[in-house]
Amino acid sequence: MHPKQWVKNLWLVKPEDLNRGRGIQIFDRPREILNFISGSDPKSKFVVQKYIERPLLYNKRKFDIRIWAIFSGDNKVYFYKRGYLRTSSDVFTHDIDDDNKAVHLTNNWFQKNMEDYGKFEDGNTLSFEDFQEYLNIYFAKRKFSVYDHFIKSIKDIIIDVYLASKDKLNPNNRRNWFELFGFDFMIDE
Fold first, then answer.
1. Which helix (H) or strand (E) holds 12?
2. What is the CA radius of gyration of the chain?
């Protein structure tokens, strides 16, 4: 198979009821996805998501951006002042070797079990200021601003999520309620 064709057809299959990267499978052929799902418990539900094959990398490693937000009963969205980047412990490749999902999954629960956890950044995390320095060095001509170009758009998306889901957030009509969410974002090339 030609490498370009392979790269353009990666898929993530995530169990609907798990978190922290548990149970995530990566496939490169739709038939493999169907075989996996049909071989699973009939009551299981999955999210099938197209893989971002050309992610923006930090020092050749995959990362995501974690933002914390509170949706409240007073129809407001509050953002924690500081988000952060969660980095992989290994150099990015398109290989889907089950023994090295650390290349693809950047969440801390998964990464903390890897041999190289913390080798590059303490706790595999970076501040927005660290990310800005990286952008200033490697993308100087583009003049990217973490806050103006990325975080502003991310906050707009989170507000859209709130607006799309607000009628389902408080089914028991509790007073003075709130929900805390961790949102993860990736930037592609």
1. strand 11-15
2. 18
Q: Are 41 and 77 within 8 A, CB to CB?
A: no
Alpha-carbon distance of 61 to 80, in angstroms, equals 26
Per residue in 43-80, pLDDT tens? 889 999 888 889 999 999 999 999 999 999 999 999 99
Cα distances (Å, whole numbers) of residue 187 to 42, 46, 66, 74, 146: 34, 24, 12, 31, 11
Q: Any bridge partners for residue 26, and if so which?
A: 12
- Alpha-carbon distance values, 94 to 5, 64, 172 (Å): 12, 17, 45
Q: In whole angstroms, how far apart are CA 31 and each of 9, 11, 79?
A: 12, 11, 41
Copy the structure tokens of residue 90: 């290994």
CA-nearest of 162, 139, 159, 137 to 149 is 139
Question: In this predicted model, what pLDDT tens digit does every residue of 152-165 receive, in sequence order?
Answer: 999 999 999 999 99
CB 68, CB 79: distance < 8 Å: yes
